[in-house]
Design goal:
single chain
Length: 42
């Protein structure tokens, strides 16, 4: 194998991961409200 093959792929992975994490932080968080039934006897 060429010298630095694993290091190069690891650097590429870290760069992709950083981009993904930045996008993930900017996603809006949806409110998770529990839908309650009108009649609790069900």
């Amino acid at each position: 194998m060429a010298d630095g093959y694993l290091e190069k792929h690891h650097e590429d992975y870290e760069a992709r991961k950083a981009v993904w994490l930045r996008k993930k932080k900017h996603l809006p968080k949806g409110k998770r409200e529990i839908e309650r039934p009108d009649d609790w006897s069900l």
